[in-house]
Automatic annotation (TrEMBL):
Its main location: membrane. One of its GO terms (molecular function) is transmembrane transporter activity. It holds the Pfam family MFS_1. InterPro entries: EmrB-like, MFS, MFS_dom, MFS_trans_sf. This is Multidrug MFS transporter. Residues 497-518 have a biased composition (Low complexity). Keywords: Cell membrane, Membrane, Transmembrane, Transmembrane helix, Transport. It comes from Parafrankia soli. PROSITE patterns: MFS (PS50850). One of its GO terms (cellular component) is plasma membrane.
Length: 527
């Protein structure tokens, strides 16, 4: 029994960090109401966690190789627990956003070391069992997140979704101190600080600019400044990485169409399948007037179907080239999100059921093999780097998807509200509606006009979701075709064996709802 204690602590940490992506999507309306937050605040509350996780994942992987994976893992657990406490006690929205960013830092430290700790602890059949259990934990977190979030929010408080992490983290820390042995790889090189700084600055400015675009418009000075700054920072990142002997991410990998297409596939899969669910949850709770538990259940068909398909697909699709599974999965995601465009002002949640199920099939097909497929498209000495890049791009897909979809939803809602002729300031109303303010908007109008206003808000949010699903579907279809046409593995015999790896957990995408199953090898920025 003692030999499985390291697996237990790694699984507990994984469960927490994934739960805190999915659990927040259901609690967002309650948080926004309690802390009187704006649409921009709403997006940052969800996005900052995944942004920090994505931006620092590869750098922390390198740090763990140098300074010890157990040490970094424990530090991540402590930071995550302290940040969870801060989130639960947050007096205002600014404090909550900052604490969520610290949570992302702790999550990055845990996530960057999880697979490496398992690989350093177990061998042979035990390693396969460990990764299989870890994969099941990923799936459980995905399926339970919305339901647990709804239960805690409705029956206790939105603060409970963060405070529940404290006892779990305490158990994980005690087990890690007693049962996990240290491992490191001092030959992995130095931490790429210039690359980390320029990459973090670039993606942060990009996300900030996209969020500001939804609130202030694309011509706003701050929006344009952030987007231009992001482009400059990312160009500098590429130049810096090209000149380093041990880069965090070698830009030359992207010369290969296979590697580039897979990174695009991982990025789009997470964004197209999951980022829109934040706004589906807001719609269910503030437009359809669902309680948090019911809103959580609305999101579970996707996670449940992905869990079933991933489990069955591992056996039924054995031997099928990864590009087929990934490309077909993306096509299913595209078809599923396009099916959700049937939503209308009078629609209930069942209008989304078919689309969510089809999308779940796509996620279950594609997610489990993304990590191992990335390894087949890079040279053997860059295997760790390819794996770290896939982790990062999947997280970035969610981080970028939230503001892109938020901007699209608010813009389309504004147009619909303007056409209705019932609102003096359609832009402000659209922003409030997108952020969960439908009940407050209705409460401010005379009783005689509430039915008409309610109908207009239903129409505006439905039109906004329609635009979001169109963008999701188109992006997934394009990415699916690109993967099918461009991905070809590096013809190296040893690599093919390594790609199969232990049966374990697919790298989660973020937030949002990662699919279980698949292959996962140790992370590491420098391979």
């Amino acid at each position: 029994m003692r030999k499985w204690l390291p697996l237990l602590t790694v699984s507990l940490s994984t469960f927490m960090l994934l739960l805190d992506v999915t659990i927040v999507s259901v609690a967002v309306p309650a948080m926004a109401d309690a802390l009187d937050s704006s649409f921009t605040d709403l997006q940052w509350t969800v996005d900052i966690y995944v942004l920090v996780l994505a931006a620092l994942l590869m750098a922390i992987g390198s740090a763990s190789d140098l300074f010890g994976r157990r040490r970094i893992f424990l530090l991540g657990l402590v930071v995550f627990a302290a940040a969870s406490l801060a989130c639960g006690l947050a007096p205002n929205i600014g404090f909550l956003i900052a604490a969520r960013g610290m949570q992302g830092l702790g999550a990055a430290a845990m996530f960057a070391t999880n697979a490496a700790l398992l690989s350093a602890t177990y061998r042979g059949r035990d390693l396969g069992v460990a990764f299989g259990v870890w994969g099941a934990v990923n799936g459980a977190a995905a399926a339970l997140g919305p339901i647990v979030g709804g239960l805690l929010t409705e029956h206790i408080s939105w603060r409970a979704i963060f405070l529940v992490n404290l006892p779990v983290a305490a158990v994980a820390i005690v087990i890690a101190l007693r049962a996990v042995t240290e491992s490191r790889d001092r030959a992995s090189g130095r931490i790429d600080i210039p690359g980390t700084v320029t990459f973090t600055l670039g993606v942060s400015l990009l996300i900030y600019g996209l969020i500001e675009a939804g609130d202030q418009g694309w011509s706003d000075f701050v929006t344009l400044g952030c987007l231009i700054g992001a482009a400059v920072a990312l160009v500098v990142f590429v130049l810096v990485e090209r000149g380093r002997r041990a880069p965090m991410l070698d830009p030359r990998l992207f010369r290969g169409p296979s590697f580039s297409a897979l990174m695009l596939g991982g990025f789009v899969l997470t964004g197209a399948a999951f980022a829109n669910l934040v706004f589906v949850s807001v719609w269910a709770q503030t437009v359809l007037d669902f309680d948090p538990v019911k809103a959580g259940l609305v999101l579970t068909p996707l996670a449940g179907m992905s869990f079933v398909v991933a489990g069955a697909g591992g056996r039924l699709l054995h031997g099928v080239p990864p590009r087929i599974s990934i490309g077909a999965g993306l096509l299913f995601v595209g078809a599923g999100t396009l099916l959700d465009m049937v939503i209308a002002p009078s629609s209930g949640w069942t209008a989304l059921l078919a689309g969510l199920i089809v999308t779940g099939v796509g996620v279950g097909l594609a997610s489990p093999v993304l990590a191992s497929a990335a390894l087949t498209t890079a040279p053997p000495e860059r295997a760790g780097m390819a794996n770290g890049a896939m982790n990062t791009f999947r997280q970035l897909g969610f981080a970028v998807g939230v503001p892109v979809f938020g901007t699209a939803l608010a813009g389309q809602a504004r147009a619909t509200l303007s056409d209705s002729g019932q609102f003096d300031d359609p832009q402000a109303t659209a922003s409030a509606l997108s952020g969960g303010g439908a009940p407050e908007i209705i409460a401010r109008v005379p009783a005689a006009a509430r039915a008409a206003v309610d109908q207009a808000l239903h129409a505006a949010y439905a039109d906004g979701l329609d635009r979001v699903f169109l963008i999701s579907g188109a992006a997934a279809l394009v990415a699916g075709v690109a993967v099918l046409l461009l991905v070809r593995p590096v013809p190296t015999a040893p690599r093919a064996a390594a790609a199969d790896g232990p049966a374990g957990a697919a790298v989660p995408g973020g937030p949002a709802i990662p699919a279980p199953g698949g292959s996962q090898l140790p992370t590491g920025a420098n391979g």
